[in-house]
Structure formats: C-alpha cells, structure tokens
Design goal:
The protein is an alpha+beta fold. The chain has one domain. It has six helices and four strands, in the order αβααααβαββ. Strands 1-4-2-3 form a four-stranded antiparallel beta sheet. Helix 2 runs antiparallel to helix 3, helix 3 packs parallel to helix 5 and helix 4 runs antiparallel to helix 5. Bound molecules: zinc ion (ZN).
Length: 270
C-alpha cells in the first residue's frame, strides 16, 4: 500500500485541524447483498417443498396403510438439497464479491470527492483501487465463509425438522409450518449478515483510507437518531487513535460492533 500524507498535500496553516467526514454505508449495497442471500434461501425452500415434502407425505400415507413401521426419513432424502445448496452458495458468493468490488470502487471515489471538498486536494494520482487488493481478498474470504455456513445451516435445519416431525408422526401441515419457521430464522440471519457485513466492510475501508493518508486519529460520530444505542450515544464526539480500544463493545471502532451505523471522522492535523 502506498502511504502518503494528506496534511502535506493540502495547504493549511500549521497547527490547524480539519475533520474529514467518513464515507457512509450505502443502503442499496446492503439490499443487494441481502437479495443475493434471499435468492439462495428461496430456491432451497422451493426444493424442500417440491422434493422433500412429497417424500414425507408418501411416507405418512404408507405408515397409515401398513399400520406398521416403514422406512422413515433418511439422509438420502437430503442429498439433492445439499447439492443444490452447495451450488447456490457459490453463486451467492460470486454475486456478493461483485457487490463488494463495486462498493470498494464507490468508496474510493467518494473518499476522493470528500478530500477534495474538505481540503481542496485532488487525489486522483495518489489513491488507486489496487491499494485495497490485500484487504479485498480477506473480505471476500470472510464473506464466502459466512455464506457457506448460512447455506449449511439451512440444510441442517430442514433435515432436523423433517426428522423431528417424522419421529413424532406429525402431519404434512405441521411439518410445513415447522419448516416455514426455520426458513424465517435463516431469512433473519441472512438480513443480519447483509447489514453487518456491508457496515463492517465500509468501516474497514474508512479506516484503511484514513490510515493510508497518514490520519492517526478520528472522531466517533453517531447517526444522531433515536436508533443509536445508549452506549454509542455516549461516544459521539469522542476522539480516538486508530488501533486504540474505544468505549464500544470489545473496544471496537465505529461501524464494527454488530448493527452499528456510527462513523469515524478523520482528523487531519497540519
Ligand atoms: Zn454505533
């Protein structure tokens, strides 16, 4: 990574300070991310409806007809679902990679525009997208692993729900309801992953771009609305050094605690 000094590039009186606004999270990125996960979950739910519920139904009918023990649900029922989930998880990861790439580009452009507005300097020749290479690789790996575990979790939930209902001898209607509940849980988890990961990604990029520019401290800024948690409201306006533990959960910087929408205004000291 090429390091440079924003303070040296801008022409400001010695001893003065300028605050550099953080680049905000873009809501549409979070929505696109969630849509990619949702599409995966919807297709898994559809296959569950089309292939596993009919197997369950015929098992229930055989049990009634024979009035005796017949074959219960077994792992072979879920092999197709597992294969589909593996395939969909790779597709979702590819889509999310694309979203993160575009977000990184958008972040770089917005950061440059902010520096121009706040300090009157043009960073076109200094800042490049390639600077982010190593970090982007890490972010891509982290997101792929979360998507993989979401997909494994949904298959496991389907499997366990079918077994539990089969053992209890529940009707197809009861099984359907139980499955819907499980899909509801994974959908909420998908939403949380999308929100949390886009926010963390944006927060990481802010930190990266500020540190690259020689900015060593920042001001914690909340979104100043009623959704800000009490703990973060207390941090609003506080100054921290990058790398120093904050007063937030686990000492994390703004945008890193779960569901945190706070930002870091970089302090450029001349
Ligand atoms: Zn916060």
């Amino acid at each position: 990574m090429l390091r440079y000094s924003l303070a040296k590039l801008a022409d400001k009186p010695k001893g003065s300070k300028v605050e550099l606004p953080a680049v905000d999270v873009r809501l549409s990125a979070e929505k696109q991310y969630y849509a990619a996960l949702r599409s995966m979950l919807i297709q898994i739910a559809a296959m569950t409806r089309e292939s596993i519920i009919p197997l369950y139904q015929s098992e229930q009918e055989q049990k009634r007809a024979a009035r005796a023990y017949t074959a219960d649900a077994d792992r072979s029922w879920f092999a197709g679902l597992q294969a589909l989930a593996n395939q969909l998880q790779r597709i979702a990861s590819t889509t999310v990679n694309r979203i993160l790439d575009l977000e990184a580009e958008r972040h770089t452009e917005t950061f440059m525009a902010t520096a121009k507005r706040a300090l009157g300097i043009n960073l076109q020749a200094v800042v490049t997208q390639e600077d982010l290479g190593g970090y982007l690789q890490l972010a891509v790996a982290r997101n792929a692993s979360l998507i993989e575990s979401l997909s494994a979790d949904v298959v496991k939930r389907v499997e366990q729900t079918v077994y539990a209902n089969s053992v209890a001898g529940n009707s197809v209607t009861t099984l359907r309801k139980a499955l819907q509940e499980q899909f509801g849980i994974t959908d909420r988890r998908a939403k949380l992953i999308a929100r949390d990961q886009t926010s963390k990604f944006n927060s990481d990029l802010n930190k990266f771009r500020q540190q690259q520019a020689g900015v060593t401290s920042y001001v914690w800024v909340t979104s100043h609305d009623e959704r800000v948690r009490a703990l973060h409201r207390k941090l609003d306006g506080k100054t921290y050094k990058w790398g120093e533990a904050t007063g937030a959960e686990q000492g994390l910087p703004p945008g890193q605690p779960i569901n945190c929408r706070c930002g870091a205004r970089g302090i450029v000291e001349f």
